[in-house]
Design goal:
The protein has 393 residues and is an alpha/beta fold. The protein contains 13 helices and 14 strands. It is globular, with a radius of gyration of 25 Å.
Length: 393
Protein backbone atom coordinates (compact mmCIF):
# COMPACT_ATOMS: atom_id res chain seq x y z
CA UNK A 1 0.00 0.00 0.00
CA UNK A 2 1.56 3.31 -1.04
CA UNK A 3 2.29 6.09 1.47
CA UNK A 4 0.36 9.33 1.65
CA UNK A 5 0.86 11.47 -1.48
CA UNK A 6 3.55 14.16 -1.07
CA UNK A 7 1.07 17.03 -1.60
CA UNK A 8 -1.13 15.70 1.20
CA UNK A 9 1.91 15.33 3.46
CA UNK A 10 2.85 18.99 2.96
CA UNK A 11 -0.68 20.13 3.73
CA UNK A 12 -0.81 18.03 6.86
CA UNK A 13 2.56 19.35 8.07
CA UNK A 14 1.33 22.89 7.68
CA UNK A 15 -1.91 22.21 9.53
CA UNK A 16 -1.98 18.93 11.44
CA UNK A 17 -5.63 17.97 11.74
CA UNK A 18 -6.62 16.23 14.92
CA UNK A 19 -10.00 14.68 15.63
CA UNK A 20 -10.46 16.21 19.06
CA UNK A 21 -13.45 18.47 18.55
CA UNK A 22 -16.83 17.97 17.03
CA UNK A 23 -19.79 16.02 18.35
CA UNK A 24 -18.99 13.18 20.82
CA UNK A 25 -20.25 10.43 18.44
CA UNK A 26 -17.69 11.53 15.83
CA UNK A 27 -14.84 11.41 18.33
CA UNK A 28 -15.91 8.02 19.66
CA UNK A 29 -16.25 6.60 16.15
CA UNK A 30 -12.77 7.80 15.20
CA UNK A 31 -11.37 6.30 18.39
CA UNK A 32 -13.13 3.01 17.62
CA UNK A 33 -11.73 3.07 14.08
CA UNK A 34 -8.12 3.69 15.10
CA UNK A 35 -7.93 2.30 18.62
CA UNK A 36 -6.26 5.55 19.74
CA UNK A 37 -7.53 8.58 21.66
CA UNK A 38 -7.63 11.89 19.73
CA UNK A 39 -6.33 10.40 16.46
CA UNK A 40 -4.95 12.47 13.57
CA UNK A 41 -6.95 12.34 10.36
CA UNK A 42 -4.02 10.55 8.70
CA UNK A 43 -4.40 7.76 11.25
CA UNK A 44 -8.12 7.54 10.54
CA UNK A 45 -7.56 7.27 6.77
CA UNK A 46 -4.86 4.63 7.21
CA UNK A 47 -7.22 2.62 9.42
CA UNK A 48 -10.25 2.64 7.13
CA UNK A 49 -8.60 2.08 3.76
CA UNK A 50 -8.11 -1.63 4.50
CA UNK A 51 -11.74 -2.19 5.39
CA UNK A 52 -13.20 -2.47 1.94
CA UNK A 53 -13.66 -5.80 0.10
CA UNK A 54 -12.87 -4.10 -3.25
CA UNK A 55 -10.27 -1.74 -4.69
CA UNK A 56 -10.89 1.91 -5.45
CA UNK A 57 -9.01 5.19 -5.41
CA UNK A 58 -10.11 8.58 -4.10
CA UNK A 59 -8.13 11.84 -3.88
CA UNK A 60 -4.83 10.02 -4.23
CA UNK A 61 -5.68 7.45 -1.56
CA UNK A 62 -5.90 3.77 -2.53
CA UNK A 63 -8.44 1.70 -0.67
CA UNK A 64 -7.83 -2.05 -0.92
CA UNK A 65 -8.60 -5.22 1.03
CA UNK A 66 -5.99 -6.89 3.17
CA UNK A 67 -3.66 -9.18 1.21
CA UNK A 68 -4.49 -12.87 1.04
CA UNK A 69 -2.85 -15.09 3.60
CA UNK A 70 -1.73 -18.64 3.05
CA UNK A 71 -1.60 -21.38 5.64
CA UNK A 72 2.10 -22.05 6.00
CA UNK A 73 2.95 -25.72 6.49
CA UNK A 74 3.71 -26.45 10.13
CA UNK A 75 3.05 -22.86 11.27
CA UNK A 76 0.45 -22.11 13.93
CA UNK A 77 -2.65 -20.55 12.39
CA UNK A 78 -4.26 -17.89 14.57
CA UNK A 79 -8.06 -17.70 14.27
CA UNK A 80 -10.28 -15.22 16.12
CA UNK A 81 -14.00 -16.04 16.33
CA UNK A 82 -16.40 -13.24 17.26
CA UNK A 83 -19.63 -14.60 18.70
CA UNK A 84 -20.71 -12.71 21.84
CA UNK A 85 -24.18 -14.26 22.29
CA UNK A 86 -26.58 -16.01 22.75
CA UNK A 87 -26.07 -19.39 24.48
CA UNK A 88 -27.65 -21.54 21.77
CA UNK A 89 -25.76 -19.73 18.99
CA UNK A 90 -22.53 -19.99 20.99
CA UNK A 91 -23.03 -23.75 21.31
CA UNK A 92 -23.38 -23.97 17.53
CA UNK A 93 -20.22 -21.89 17.15
CA UNK A 94 -18.34 -24.16 19.56
CA UNK A 95 -19.36 -27.16 17.47
CA UNK A 96 -17.86 -25.46 14.42
CA UNK A 97 -14.69 -24.68 16.40
CA UNK A 98 -14.40 -28.32 17.48
CA UNK A 99 -14.89 -29.43 13.87
CA UNK A 100 -12.15 -27.05 12.70
CA UNK A 101 -9.78 -28.27 15.40
CA UNK A 102 -10.42 -31.87 14.28
CA UNK A 103 -9.75 -31.13 10.59
CA UNK A 104 -7.10 -28.36 10.58
CA UNK A 105 -3.66 -28.95 12.07
CA UNK A 106 -1.78 -26.31 14.09
CA UNK A 107 -4.89 -24.19 14.67
CA UNK A 108 -5.19 -21.87 17.66
CA UNK A 109 -8.66 -20.43 18.34
CA UNK A 110 -9.43 -17.28 20.30
CA UNK A 111 -13.01 -16.18 21.04
CA UNK A 112 -14.83 -12.92 21.82
CA UNK A 113 -17.86 -13.51 24.05
CA UNK A 114 -20.09 -11.66 26.50
CA UNK A 115 -19.09 -12.01 30.14
CA UNK A 116 -22.31 -13.87 31.01
CA UNK A 117 -21.48 -16.68 28.56
CA UNK A 118 -17.70 -16.72 29.06
CA UNK A 119 -17.64 -19.74 31.45
CA UNK A 120 -19.01 -22.17 28.84
CA UNK A 121 -16.54 -20.94 26.20
CA UNK A 122 -13.58 -21.12 28.59
CA UNK A 123 -14.55 -24.67 29.51
CA UNK A 124 -14.58 -25.86 25.87
CA UNK A 125 -11.40 -27.70 24.91
CA UNK A 126 -11.56 -26.33 21.34
CA UNK A 127 -10.98 -22.73 22.52
CA UNK A 128 -7.51 -21.58 23.57
CA UNK A 129 -8.16 -17.98 24.66
CA UNK A 130 -11.21 -15.89 25.59
CA UNK A 131 -11.78 -12.13 25.32
CA UNK A 132 -14.68 -10.48 27.12
CA UNK A 133 -17.21 -8.33 25.27
CA UNK A 134 -18.75 -6.01 27.88
CA UNK A 135 -22.24 -5.33 26.59
CA UNK A 136 -22.87 -2.76 29.31
CA UNK A 137 -19.39 -1.26 29.09
CA UNK A 138 -20.32 1.40 26.53
CA UNK A 139 -17.72 3.02 24.29
CA UNK A 140 -14.97 2.70 26.92
CA UNK A 141 -15.51 -1.03 27.23
CA UNK A 142 -15.52 -1.42 23.46
CA UNK A 143 -12.28 0.54 23.05
CA UNK A 144 -10.67 -1.43 25.86
CA UNK A 145 -11.50 -4.67 24.03
CA UNK A 146 -10.16 -3.25 20.76
CA UNK A 147 -6.83 -2.39 22.40
CA UNK A 148 -6.63 -5.85 23.91
CA UNK A 149 -7.28 -7.56 20.59
CA UNK A 150 -4.81 -5.40 18.67
CA UNK A 151 -1.88 -6.65 20.74
CA UNK A 152 -1.73 -9.67 18.44
CA UNK A 153 -2.04 -10.22 14.72
CA UNK A 154 -4.36 -12.96 13.52
CA UNK A 155 -4.39 -14.90 10.28
CA UNK A 156 -8.19 -15.02 10.16
CA UNK A 157 -11.19 -13.40 11.83
CA UNK A 158 -14.58 -15.13 11.61
CA UNK A 159 -17.56 -12.93 12.53
CA UNK A 160 -20.24 -15.49 13.38
CA UNK A 161 -22.63 -12.80 14.67
CA UNK A 162 -22.97 -10.52 11.66
CA UNK A 163 -24.13 -7.32 13.39
CA UNK A 164 -22.80 -3.75 13.34
CA UNK A 165 -20.95 -3.98 16.67
CA UNK A 166 -19.20 -7.21 15.68
CA UNK A 167 -18.47 -5.81 12.23
CA UNK A 168 -16.78 -2.77 13.79
CA UNK A 169 -14.79 -5.09 16.04
CA UNK A 170 -13.78 -7.19 13.04
CA UNK A 171 -12.59 -4.04 11.27
CA UNK A 172 -10.28 -3.09 14.12
CA UNK A 173 -8.61 -6.47 14.58
CA UNK A 174 -5.21 -6.85 12.94
CA UNK A 175 -5.78 -9.78 10.61
CA UNK A 176 -4.91 -10.85 7.08
CA UNK A 177 -8.41 -12.10 6.22
CA UNK A 178 -11.73 -11.03 7.71
CA UNK A 179 -14.63 -13.35 6.95
CA UNK A 180 -18.32 -12.81 7.61
CA UNK A 181 -21.74 -14.20 6.88
CA UNK A 182 -23.61 -13.66 3.62
CA UNK A 183 -26.72 -12.87 5.64
CA UNK A 184 -24.96 -10.28 7.84
CA UNK A 185 -27.17 -7.41 9.00
CA UNK A 186 -26.83 -3.75 10.01
CA UNK A 187 -24.33 -3.09 7.17
CA UNK A 188 -21.67 -5.17 8.95
CA UNK A 189 -20.75 -6.76 5.61
CA UNK A 190 -18.72 -3.69 4.57
CA UNK A 191 -16.07 -4.63 7.14
CA UNK A 192 -15.26 -8.06 5.69
CA UNK A 193 -12.72 -8.99 3.05
CA UNK A 194 -14.90 -11.94 2.08
CA UNK A 195 -18.20 -13.60 2.91
CA UNK A 196 -19.08 -17.26 3.10
CA UNK A 197 -22.01 -18.45 0.97
CA UNK A 198 -25.22 -19.76 2.46
CA UNK A 199 -25.96 -23.51 2.28
CA UNK A 200 -27.93 -24.79 -0.74
CA UNK A 201 -31.25 -24.17 1.03
CA UNK A 202 -30.29 -20.56 1.73
CA UNK A 203 -31.94 -18.82 4.66
CA UNK A 204 -34.15 -21.87 5.21
CA UNK A 205 -31.09 -23.81 6.40
CA UNK A 206 -30.50 -24.83 9.99
CA UNK A 207 -28.59 -22.23 12.04
CA UNK A 208 -25.66 -24.63 12.54
CA UNK A 209 -25.45 -25.45 8.83
CA UNK A 210 -25.02 -21.73 8.12
CA UNK A 211 -22.04 -21.51 10.50
CA UNK A 212 -20.49 -24.69 9.07
CA UNK A 213 -19.99 -22.80 5.79
CA UNK A 214 -17.00 -21.07 7.44
CA UNK A 215 -15.11 -24.38 7.50
CA UNK A 216 -14.07 -24.46 3.80
CA UNK A 217 -12.30 -21.11 4.29
CA UNK A 218 -9.64 -23.05 6.20
CA UNK A 219 -9.75 -26.05 3.87
CA UNK A 220 -12.08 -28.10 6.10
CA UNK A 221 -15.32 -29.83 5.15
CA UNK A 222 -18.58 -28.07 6.12
CA UNK A 223 -19.62 -30.88 8.43
CA UNK A 224 -19.36 -31.82 12.08
CA UNK A 225 -16.13 -33.63 12.93
CA UNK A 226 -14.65 -34.59 16.26
CA UNK A 227 -16.73 -34.08 19.40
CA UNK A 228 -17.64 -31.16 21.61
CA UNK A 229 -15.76 -31.62 24.88
CA UNK A 230 -15.44 -29.59 28.06
CA UNK A 231 -12.74 -29.44 30.69
CA UNK A 232 -13.45 -31.20 33.96
CA UNK A 233 -14.45 -29.04 36.92
CA UNK A 234 -12.87 -29.94 40.25
CA UNK A 235 -14.99 -30.46 43.37
CA UNK A 236 -18.25 -30.39 41.42
CA UNK A 237 -20.96 -32.17 43.45
CA UNK A 238 -23.86 -33.51 41.41
CA UNK A 239 -24.95 -36.41 43.62
CA UNK A 240 -28.33 -34.67 44.09
CA UNK A 241 -29.18 -35.76 40.54
CA UNK A 242 -28.75 -39.49 41.20
CA UNK A 243 -31.87 -41.64 41.32
CA UNK A 244 -32.45 -44.64 43.53
CA UNK A 245 -30.02 -47.38 42.66
CA UNK A 246 -27.77 -44.93 40.82
CA UNK A 247 -30.08 -44.45 37.85
CA UNK A 248 -29.61 -41.51 35.51
CA UNK A 249 -32.05 -38.60 35.86
CA UNK A 250 -34.32 -36.82 33.43
CA UNK A 251 -33.15 -33.21 33.42
CA UNK A 252 -35.73 -30.57 32.49
CA UNK A 253 -34.81 -26.99 31.59
CA UNK A 254 -38.08 -25.29 32.36
CA UNK A 255 -37.30 -21.70 31.32
CA UNK A 256 -36.16 -19.92 28.17
CA UNK A 257 -34.74 -16.51 27.35
CA UNK A 258 -37.93 -15.47 25.55
CA UNK A 259 -41.35 -15.71 27.20
CA UNK A 260 -43.11 -16.93 24.04
CA UNK A 261 -40.77 -19.96 23.98
CA UNK A 262 -41.57 -21.04 27.57
CA UNK A 263 -43.98 -23.96 27.90
CA UNK A 264 -46.07 -24.00 31.09
CA UNK A 265 -46.68 -27.76 31.41
CA UNK A 266 -43.48 -29.00 33.07
CA UNK A 267 -45.16 -29.58 36.45
CA UNK A 268 -47.84 -31.81 34.93
CA UNK A 269 -45.24 -33.61 32.79
CA UNK A 270 -43.13 -34.29 35.89
CA UNK A 271 -46.16 -35.77 37.67
CA UNK A 272 -46.83 -38.14 34.76
CA UNK A 273 -43.20 -39.32 34.60
CA UNK A 274 -42.80 -39.87 38.35
CA UNK A 275 -46.17 -41.63 38.65
CA UNK A 276 -45.07 -44.14 36.02
CA UNK A 277 -41.69 -44.99 37.62
CA UNK A 278 -41.12 -44.60 41.38
CA UNK A 279 -37.37 -45.10 40.92
CA UNK A 280 -37.04 -42.28 38.39
CA UNK A 281 -35.43 -38.94 39.32
CA UNK A 282 -36.41 -35.66 37.68
CA UNK A 283 -34.22 -32.58 38.00
CA UNK A 284 -35.42 -29.09 37.15
CA UNK A 285 -32.56 -26.82 36.08
CA UNK A 286 -32.08 -23.39 34.57
CA UNK A 287 -30.80 -19.89 35.20
CA UNK A 288 -34.14 -18.47 36.41
CA UNK A 289 -35.88 -19.82 39.51
CA UNK A 290 -39.17 -21.68 38.97
CA UNK A 291 -41.14 -22.67 42.09
CA UNK A 292 -42.26 -26.30 42.34
CA UNK A 293 -44.40 -25.61 45.47
CA UNK A 294 -43.14 -28.78 47.17
CA UNK A 295 -45.28 -30.96 44.92
CA UNK A 296 -42.82 -33.85 44.58
CA UNK A 297 -40.98 -36.14 47.03
CA UNK A 298 -37.27 -35.21 47.47
CA UNK A 299 -36.19 -38.78 46.72
CA UNK A 300 -37.59 -38.41 43.19
CA UNK A 301 -37.14 -34.73 42.52
CA UNK A 302 -34.57 -31.92 42.75
CA UNK A 303 -35.07 -28.26 41.84
CA UNK A 304 -31.86 -26.35 41.02
CA UNK A 305 -33.49 -23.64 38.91
CA UNK A 306 -31.87 -20.30 39.64
CA UNK A 307 -28.79 -22.16 40.85
CA UNK A 308 -27.54 -23.77 37.63
CA UNK A 309 -24.22 -22.26 36.59
CA UNK A 310 -22.70 -22.46 33.13
CA UNK A 311 -19.63 -24.04 34.75
CA UNK A 312 -21.65 -27.04 35.92
CA UNK A 313 -24.02 -27.19 32.94
CA UNK A 314 -22.04 -29.61 30.70
CA UNK A 315 -21.45 -32.03 33.59
CA UNK A 316 -25.13 -32.00 34.60
CA UNK A 317 -26.27 -32.63 31.02
CA UNK A 318 -23.69 -35.40 30.57
CA UNK A 319 -25.20 -37.13 33.63
CA UNK A 320 -28.73 -37.14 32.17
CA UNK A 321 -30.58 -40.02 30.58
CA UNK A 322 -32.83 -37.54 28.77
CA UNK A 323 -32.98 -33.76 28.59
CA UNK A 324 -36.42 -32.17 28.10
CA UNK A 325 -36.27 -28.47 27.33
CA UNK A 326 -37.84 -25.49 25.65
CA UNK A 327 -36.11 -24.13 22.56
CA UNK A 328 -33.06 -22.90 24.48
CA UNK A 329 -29.29 -23.04 24.83
CA UNK A 330 -29.30 -26.11 27.11
CA UNK A 331 -31.36 -28.00 24.53
CA UNK A 332 -28.72 -27.29 21.87
CA UNK A 333 -25.92 -28.18 24.29
CA UNK A 334 -27.52 -31.56 25.06
CA UNK A 335 -27.81 -32.36 21.35
CA UNK A 336 -24.22 -31.22 20.75
CA UNK A 337 -22.98 -33.52 23.53
CA UNK A 338 -24.87 -36.52 22.13
CA UNK A 339 -27.37 -36.71 25.00
CA UNK A 340 -30.92 -37.73 24.12
CA UNK A 341 -33.11 -34.64 24.03
CA UNK A 342 -36.78 -33.75 23.61
CA UNK A 343 -37.20 -30.16 22.43
CA UNK A 344 -40.52 -28.36 22.98
CA UNK A 345 -41.25 -25.76 20.29
CA UNK A 346 -43.83 -23.03 19.94
CA UNK A 347 -43.40 -20.15 17.45
CA UNK A 348 -39.89 -21.12 16.29
CA UNK A 349 -39.32 -23.63 13.51
CA UNK A 350 -37.51 -26.80 14.66
CA UNK A 351 -36.27 -27.36 11.11
CA UNK A 352 -34.19 -24.19 11.48
CA UNK A 353 -33.52 -24.14 15.23
CA UNK A 354 -34.11 -27.66 16.48
CA UNK A 355 -31.60 -30.17 17.90
CA UNK A 356 -28.92 -30.93 15.33
CA UNK A 357 -28.69 -33.13 13.38
CA UNK A 358 -32.46 -33.51 13.03
CA UNK A 359 -32.23 -37.11 11.76
CA UNK A 360 -30.39 -38.40 14.85
CA UNK A 361 -32.71 -40.83 16.70
CA UNK A 362 -31.96 -39.16 20.05
CA UNK A 363 -32.98 -35.70 18.82
CA UNK A 364 -36.76 -35.50 19.22
CA UNK A 365 -39.05 -32.48 18.91
CA UNK A 366 -42.69 -31.73 19.62
CA UNK A 367 -44.28 -28.57 18.27
CA UNK A 368 -47.35 -26.82 19.61
CA UNK A 369 -50.43 -26.53 17.37
CA UNK A 370 -50.22 -23.34 15.25
CA UNK A 371 -47.07 -22.45 17.21
CA UNK A 372 -48.97 -21.59 20.40
CA UNK A 373 -47.50 -23.32 23.47
CA UNK A 374 -50.72 -22.72 25.43
CA UNK A 375 -52.37 -25.29 23.13
CA UNK A 376 -49.79 -27.99 23.88
CA UNK A 377 -50.89 -30.30 26.71
CA UNK A 378 -48.64 -32.25 29.06
CA UNK A 379 -50.35 -35.48 27.95
CA UNK A 380 -49.34 -34.83 24.34
CA UNK A 381 -45.71 -34.19 25.32
CA UNK A 382 -45.68 -37.25 27.57
CA UNK A 383 -47.04 -39.46 24.78
CA UNK A 384 -44.32 -38.19 22.42
CA UNK A 385 -41.71 -38.82 25.09
CA UNK A 386 -42.97 -42.39 25.64
CA UNK A 387 -42.74 -43.17 21.92
CA UNK A 388 -39.19 -41.76 21.78
CA UNK A 389 -38.05 -43.76 24.82
CA UNK A 390 -39.49 -46.97 23.35
CA UNK A 391 -36.87 -46.83 20.57
CA UNK A 392 -34.08 -47.22 23.15
CA UNK A 393 -35.80 -49.81 25.39
Amino acid sequence: MPDIPAADQRRLRRRPAEVSGGPPPVRLLCEAVTGRPRPHLTTVFRAVRGWFPFDFEWAGWKFAPFPAAGLAAGAMTELLIIKPSSLGDIVHGLQVAASLKAQVRHLRISWVVREIFAPIVRACTAVDEVFIFERGGGAKGFLRLVRELRRRRYDWVFDFQGLLRTGLLTARVQADRKVGRSDAREFSGVFYTERVPLPPEGRRSHALEILLQFCPVLGAKPELAGSLQFREVENLKLSFADARGGGRPIVMFVDSRRAEKCWGGFKQLTELILREDRNRKVVWAGSGYVHDRGAFPPAQFANVTGNTSLVSLPALIRRADWVIANDSGPMHLAAAMGVRVLGIFGPTDPRLFGPFPPDRPGNVVVQAPVGDLKLLSAKDVYARFQRARARFA
